[in-house]
Design goal:
This protein has helices spanning about 20-30, 30-40, 45-65, 110-125, 140-150; strands spanning about 5-10, 10-15, 65-70, 80-85, 95-100, 130-135, 150-155, 160-165. It is an alpha+beta fold and about 180 residues long. It has one domain: Aminopeptidase, CATH 3.40.630.30. It has an 8-stranded mixed beta sheet with strand order 1-2-3-4-5-6-8-7, sandwiched between helices. Bound molecules: coenzyme A (COA).
Length: about 180
């Protein structure tokens, strides 16, 4: 996997997950405040987190997109995740996913990471369409997607009602 898949912005570095991220990702994916907003009831084991990391690394190799660990420059700590997977496992649209450790919420980290991710996609996969789905009550995530340039695209129902956002081919990620 190429190091050029890493993205550096003002306060964070986005880099594809590696085996060394297992503990940090386990912490994020089992954090009650994150789980409540993304996948209530889901409680992955450490083994499931490690195999997800392997799966996402394979996706980077095969598809040229995937998910990044969001690393805080100042501390070197992994403070979140951000990236893309195939919408409903088959695509062709990509689903945007992102999360930040709750102690750092509302400091602009998610918006900074999502903007970098969209700029990457714009450059490497310009014809891809991105969809973001978030629970109706997950207002912070709606705000992040809109600040980064996604547009409201109605609702989507799976295990509950979701607000849907879309970012299309030719659409630029907002900068600031
Ligand atoms: C959604 C999430 C990633 C936001 O991370 P963050 O780093 O705090 O995001 P930012 O600081 O970049 O932006 C948050 C924005 O939401 C706003 N916000 C926060 N709580 C809010 C609320 N309850 N209602 C409305 N807006 C809210 C903030 O004020 C900020 O907007 P502003 O810059 O205009 O003031 C974070 O809350 C999280 O990890 N949630 C759990 C995972 C998740 O929901 N992921 C998205 C679904 S895939």
């Amino acid at each position: 996997m190429s190091a050029s898949l890493a993205i550096v912005s003002e306060r964070v570095v986005l880099r594809p997950y590696g085996p060394m991220d297992a503990d940090a990702l386990y912490g994020l994916w089992t954090d009650p405040q994150i789980v409540r907003m993304t996948n209530p009831g889901f409680q992955p084991s450490r083994e499931q987190v490690s195999s997800a990391i392997e799966r996402f690394r394979k996706q980077w190799d095969e598809d040229g997109f995937g998910q990044w660990a969001v690393q805080q420059k100042m501390t070197g700590a992994v403070i979140g995740y951000c990236g893309f997977k195939l919408w409903e496992r088959t695509g062709p649209e990509l689903e945007l996913v992102f999360g930040i450790t709750p102690t750092l919420w509302s400091r602009g980290y998610a918006t900074e990471a999502v903007r970098s991710a969209l700029a990457f996609l714009q450059e490497r996969h310009p014809s891809r369409v991105v969809l973001g789905a978030a629970f109706f009550h997950n207002k912070a995530s709606h705000r992040v997607m809109q600040k980064a340039g996604l547009l409201p695209a109605g609702t989507y129902y799976e295990d509950g009602p979701y607000a849907l956002f879309r970012w299309g081919a030719g659409q630029e990620a907002t900068k600031k």
